[in-house]
Amino acid sequence: MSVTPELGVVVIGRNEGQRLARCLQSLAERTDSVLYVDSGSTDGSVALAQSLGVQVLALDLRIPFTAARARNEGFAALLRSVPGLHWVQFVDGDCEVAPRWLATAQAFLQQHADVAVVCGRRRERFARQTPYNLLCDMEWDTPVGEARACGGDALMRVQAFDAVGGFRPGLIAGEEPELCVRLRAAGWKVWRLDAEMTLHDAAMTRFSQWWRRSQRAGFAYAEGAQLHGAPPEWHWVQESRRAWLWGLGVPLVVVLACLALGAWGLLLLAVYPLQVVRLARRGQRTPKENWLQAVFLVIGKFPEMLGQLKFWRQRLLAGKSTLIEYK
Q: Where in the chain are the domains?
């Protein structure tokens, strides 16, 4: 299989350094239609991309950066330079694209006219280096087959992407699932292949990074539920409710119980380790991975709740959403 000239790639990034170099080099022999969108890098990323012969679009610094905005503007610029594109691969600049992915994904879209988006297995490059990297790797191990959403790396049908207006540019997170909601509402399908797609470098070495990433997820859940939480979609309604229940509801009940019963009320905190045990026993990976994932799923409800609060505070005060970055 080989990639046809009708396929192009949009790479987005900021201060990715050698990660960006690996990303662009992994594409060099796959397609000539690659455009890099830079969101205000100060590490020489623009010069690096240009030295590799890649077309570069530097975003206007006066407009707030979001990954959604970067992808949209990159898509538009790529189509201006290569107007005959049928498929566009979006990829984050901290990811290396697997050698056979573009050809495999393109062939699938050619054979399935009702599919708008196809994604594969994104793996963490250094999954065993830190528990936070391993959590990312497990998060991306999604079921194969028809899916409800994709992540930041995916091959999309230009016709479908353009018809729904692309990504919602103001979203600071969760822009890919939100796009997939609109694509599925328009009659398209999203598909996850059993194929290697990208190697990602999360570079998460500290608990604080994981905490901010989880807070960003909570923000995305709140905004997603606000946009598409009505039936039949119920987009991220359950995720938002869980964040409120475990991150705020249970602690409030414990406080009220302590006021009524004294120190005996603290016994209600046992619900957290019990939830960890329940989730770990339900896991389908190795015992160590199941326990790790269970512990962080429970702890994660606290930063997710804070992300929910951040979203609603900004919405009620009519403030602008600001990026929640973990790198």
A: 7-205, 228-316
pLDDT in tens, 131-141: 999 999 999 99
The CATH number assigned to the domain with range 7-205 reads 3.90.550.10
How far apart, in Å, are the Cα atoms of 292 and each of 36, 74, 288, 297? 36, 38, 6, 9
Average pLDDT over residues 52-70: 92
**Helix locations, the chain, DSSP H:** 18-27, 45-51, 67-81, 101-111, 131-139, 158-163, 175-185, 207-228, 237-244, 250-261, 271-282, 287-299, 301-316
> Is this structure's pTM higher than 0.85?
yes
Q: Which residues, in sequence order, are CB contacts of 145 under 8 Å at separation 6+?
A: 191, 192
- Summarize pLDDT for 142-173 with one digit per residue, the tens: 999 999 999 999 999 999 999 999 999 999 99
